[in-house]
Amino acid sequence: MGTKKTIDGNLAPAAVRPGQGGPTDPSHDANLRRGIIFTDISREVAQGMVVLFLLLIFAIPLGQVFLEKVRGEESTLLDLFRRAPTRDSLKQFEDDLDKASYAKDYTQPRMQTLLTGIGRVGNKKAVVGHDGWLYYKPGITFLGGPGFLDPNIMGVRIKASLDDGDVPVHPDPRPAIFAFHQALAKRGIKLVLFPVPDKAMMQPLQLHRRGNPTKSMPVPRALDWDRFVGELRAGGVAVFDPTPTVLEPGAQRYLVQDTHWTPEWMAVVAQQLANFATEAGGLPPPATPLPLKSVAQEVRRVGDVVDMLKLREGQTLFAPQAVTVQQVQDAAGKPWEPDPKGDVLLLGDSFTNVFTFDAMGWGAAAGLGPHLALALRRPVDVIAQNDSGAFATRQALARELASGEDRLAGKKVVIWEFASRELAVGDWKPVEWTTTK
C-alpha cells in the first residue's frame, strides 16, 4: 500500500483504489477468502437475543394452555404424551394443534383480510381474481398445469401420497371409469360421464385479464383433455360436455365468489344433459310425465371461496351475492325430492348439491337433480356428496349393492357428474363391482 504526505508532513496511507485492499478485500484475509465474515456481538446482546427467542417459543404454547385452562377445555398439548410417538400420531397431533390454536384463530383472519384487501393475496385454496372474482386453486391447477395423463405427473402424485404416510393414490381416471362402465353394461345400464367444466375455463378474463373483453374467445382447455375424451368414447363411454364452442363477451356462467355455476347456466345444462341422456341411453318417453313446475326464489350469501379465505368475522371485502334460483315443485307445491325408483340415477358432487342441499346456503330443490327431473318429466334418483367426486359416490353405490340393497334395480341410465378438476387432483380408487347382477 502506498503512502502520501499530509499537510503536517506525516506519512499517511495512499487512497485505496476499488478492489485493492480494504476491509472486504479477500487478498489479505484467509477467512474472507473462505467466505467467512466475523460479526462481533457482546455477551449481553447475545444473552438477550437468546432469552427473547425462548420467550417467543414458549409464549404461544403456554398461552394456549392458560386459555384452555381458563375456558375449562382439555389441553390439546397433552395429547403429545398420551399417544405413542408414531408418524401417524404425530401428524394427527399436528393437525389437532393447528385446529385448536387460539393464536392462529386470532392472527390468521386479520392478516388474511389485510393481505387480501391490499394486495389481492389468496391462500393455498383460494385465488383472488379481478373485480371481486374468486377461484378455487385446484381448478386452476387442472386447467393450467401439466397433462393429467402424463405418467411422470402420476408418479409424482403417487410418491407425494407415500411421502405423506398415506396409501398411494390412484391418479389415472381411466381404469375406474372403464370398470364402472363395464359393470353397468352387464346390467344393460348406460353410463353417461359428465365432468363439469371448471370456472377458470368459463370465466378466464376475470382471472387474468389477458384478452379483449369485447370479443369472443376460444375456451381454454386442459392438456390431455382431448386425448382423455377420445379414449373414453372409443371405449364406448358416453361423455357429456356442455362447454360452449367460444366464450361470448359478457357471458357469466359461474358465481362470482363461489366454485359453482350460476343457477341460470345450471338449468340450461340440465336440459342439455336430459336430451343427451335420453338419446345415449335410449330412454322411452315417461309413462306418466311428472307435473313439475319451477318457482323463482331469491337467495343471498357470500361464496364458498370467501369461506376458504378464512377472513375475519364481519369482513367487508366481499358482499353477499344475490341470485334467483328456480325451485322445482310438484303439483301440490311441495319441493322436489329424489325417487329411488326412478330409472335415471344421478351420481354427483357439490355441483349436484348446490341450489338443492339447503345447508350450502344457495336454496333448496333448485339444483341439477330437480332440473334434470323437470327436463325429463320423469323420476330421478340421486346419490350426491360434496367433494371427492372421483370416488365418493361410486363407493356409496358399491356399499349399498354389497349390503343387498339393489339401488340399480330398474335403472336405464346412470349419470356420473364430477368437477373436471378431479381429473388432475382426484383419487380414482378402484371399486369392487362383483355384487352387481
List keywords for this structure.
single chain; 437 residues; alpha/beta; 5-stranded parallel sheet; two-stranded antiparallel ribbon; 17 helices; 13 strands; 40% helix; elongated; disordered N terminus
Uncertain regions: pLDDT < 50 for 5+ in a row?
Answer: 1-19
Assembly status = single chain
Domain module count: 2
Count of helical segments? Answer: 17
Describe the sheet with the most strands.
5 strands, parallel
Helix content: 25-40%
End-to-end gap: 97 Å
Could you tell me the mean pLDDT? 88
User: What class, by secondary structure content?
Assistant: alpha/beta
Write down the Rg.
30 Å
- Please report which band the strand proportion falls in: under 5%, 5-15%, 15-25%, 25-35%, 35-45% or over 45%: 5-15%
The SSE string, one letter per element, is: EEHHHHHEEHHHEHHEHEEHEHEEHHEHEH
Taking strands numbered 1, 2, ... along the chain, how are they ordered across the largest sheet?
Answer: 7-5-13-11-12
Shape: elongated
Number of strands: 13
